[in-house]
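so i finally got all the pieces together for this one. its two components total, 965 residues if u count the protein bits. some of the lines might not be protein, just check the labels. i wanna see the whole assembly predicted at once instead of chain by chain like last time, that was a mess tbh
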Amino acid sequence: MLAAIGVDSIDDLFAQIPEAVRLNRPLDLEDGMSESEVYRLLAGLADTNLDAERIPSFLGAGMYDHYVPAIVEAIIGRSEFLTPYTPYQPEVSQGGLQVMFEFQTAMSEITGLPVSNAGLYEGPSAAASAAYLAMGVTGRTGLVASRGLHPHSRETLATHAVGFGATLTEVGLEGGLTSGEELEAAVTDETAAVFLQNPNFLGAVEDVAALGEAVKAKGALLIVQVDPMTLGILRTPGECGADIAFGEGQSLGNRLDFGGPSFGFFCAKEEYLRKMPGRIAGETTDVDGRRGFVLTLQTREQHIRREKATSNICTAQALNALAGMVHLAWLGKQGFVELGELLVRRTAYARNLIGGLEGFELLHDAPVVREFAVRSERPVEELLPLGDESHGPAPRLQVYPLGRDYPEYEDSFLVAITENRSVDEIGWLAHMLEHGQAGWGEHIHDHDDAGNPVAGGVR
Amino acid sequence: MSEPTLIETPQQADRAVTIYEKSVPGRRAAQLPPLGEGVEETPIDQLIPAHLLREEPAELPEVSEPEIIRHYNRLSRRNFDLDTGFYPLGSCTMKYNPRLNERVAALPGHARLHPATDPADAQGALQLMYLLQESLSEITGLPTVSLQPSAGSQGELAGLLLTRAYHADQGRNPTKVLTPDTAHGTNPASVTMAGYEVVKVATNEKGGVDVEDLRSKIDDDVACLMLTNPNTLGVFDENILEIAGLVHEAGGLLYYDGANLNAIMGQARPGDMGFDIVHVNLHKSFSQPHGGGGPGAGPIAVSDRVEPFIPRPQVVRIEDEEGVFYDLDFDRPKSIGRLRGFQGNFGVFVRSLAYILSLGGDGLSEASRLAVLNANYLKKRMSEGRAGRYLPVAFDRHCMHEFVLSGAPMKKELGIKTLDLAKRLLDFGFHPPTVYFPLLVDEALMVEPVETEAKEHLDAFADAIETILEEAESDPAVAQAAPYSTPVRRLDEVGATRRPVIRQPQ
């Protein structure tokens, strides 16, 4: 090959790099390892993490330990889905493009909004995309966010607001719900958009339609972050009058993965179709009249529109969106509702149990779907360690301390329920909260009284 | 002109049918666990007020599990993928994705670890992130790495917000960002989103930045220069130190778009060239599979003067008499804040660290050397025969990891456009190179063969181009109407835009 090129060595090809910027030494990294050695090293690291396979996880706050059906893995592991690039050559990308089309349909259905894109990076950054759209549409610069909006979404909005030239105002909570009065006072003629979350970060189901009236009255956009797994049950953002619904898609077919990759979704009213961020697949026909799919409305996008693009997004989360679509197809029309109902009922059970424990009370009594907030008489940090900490940190009870994001709720924590959290595990959590570390490792059953194995447990 | 005989392939005969169209009322796949002992089947409207509840269920497909598998497996066969064929898409670095990486990412300790897990219970994950930060720091030659950005474009936006924060900290508010006319489209898009104005810089006759043009556009209103080096022409800018000096003297920062890092790993480092901020596409140089358009990750590496402003939280290593502890540092008062939720695309970090550990320092260096060798070999092959005549190299010099051809003579003499050539390549079983980019080159064709392709694939690709050009000499109509053998043939994109159908009709 060198002879064909007409050089003596590969070094000659690098001659164009000026001597002054050449590294001229080996990279200071370990030598390469065999496959088995890399596996052993990384499996060793993985082994030190307290994952949801080892301890019942009641952590939520936007990402949830749902059961991911086995077919998701089987489908997204196929080379044909795993290894292509973005579908720039539609003739040989029909698989991926049709998945996008199906995904757009499913997201549009569950949010009750007519238009969906093919996915964004994840939840909170989708908030920034929504703000960018709202500012473009209204020509206004004010953003208003409920404190019920995910703290990561609020912080992401604040980060981007600096670049967008926007101002961000927060609206407080009352009894776990966004204060209607404060919201009305915060929305002005300069407000581009109001951000709500439903259920909000404290798990409470908001009356989005009612709150939205003040937003509409001022001509601002109503933007709602939603948890897709609750949309089998809750009134859709579309029915509530939202202009845009977005959210974190992890619950749909994606692993926890310590925070990503997952996908974000973004749905809107028809009138915003040509302002949408991200990829959109559309149906068309080929020269022989066969049905096919293409990336459409590409004049919105960075590779065409450059500095005038509706967003800068390029590589996004196509494979994760596929996982979401497969999970939704697996749940299907009935299963999606049934899972929602299961979450509501099991959560009600857990909320009654834990809210009734000595030394604990509910932070709010607003309706919830799958997550609730509990106030503790004892400091939350004392509740968490599951064992004696005199020789280093003990494993923690997997609940979400609200003090991380809300100084005003420093005495409270969130409990999230999924179909993976059995009644036994909920009982174990209640026991641990009530009795503390004394109960560590002794209470959870490997088998129920009938001798059937019980999922979860502490290894 | 001959009319090619068209026989419908089995994949073409398998007409597109969506999962919705396969839906039959009452069918289902999922079986959910029972509610559990003691959990009451309370009517939902007794738990949540009826006016907050959905009245009609969402129209999701009603299909059985075997139907779902069959549907998506059939769909998958309508995709071209890297594991099946050569994919020389320029600036996309379509390198082999080792399956070990998938295996380690799927370990429950990674895959089922909740992102809000207390750092004390996630030491392995945080150590893994720290090791990746350290590795990327060494590879880029910059002291600090934030893994948070989700992909290249978010890395760019992060870099520009860092630029803004850096200047603001010094009481300055410059308004302009310089980008070469060869830049990736994400660059100018990110610039606008960061509230800056794009100022384009011209390219010189060797494919690098036109230093005189740059000099004329630099003043104290320049916040930064965004550069890809090697750039999208596959050319390493020899004047990089002079360019860096000019920008720094004017008080600006230098931003490196790491999309083309695969050319220089272990050879040269952006930090040593004077760059202050670099984003790295883990889905390009570090083998995260592209997934048909993601996921990826776009970590940023920064110089010391930019370090105070990096996103939070940052993974830090704390060593004291009790031992080593990896933590998430939120206490960064000058930080630009968050770009997204939690800590970033951790699953991507696992794969990329597995890749870095597998190759090691020497292996990464060798990967770049072979990528450059392959690109120059293929470029040489493309300079021979008909390709050399109809598809000249845009800037004829040794390239780095990719090179750009111009289809202008082909269009003029044979009447076939770069698009036609690309579509005809599909019939030969190749994914075409990037087309019509960079914008600077007429009828551009941007070829990146990557290091994991064997010589025979490069030869086969060059032979296919030769065959297509020969065919076009006698009958350009063949390429003009290509492809013929793909699941669908050319699609009506204009119609799709004019009357958008972007979901299943209700």
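Chain B touches chain A through 204 residues (CB under 8 Å).
Chain B has three domains: 17-77, 100-357, 363-493.
anyway lmk what u think
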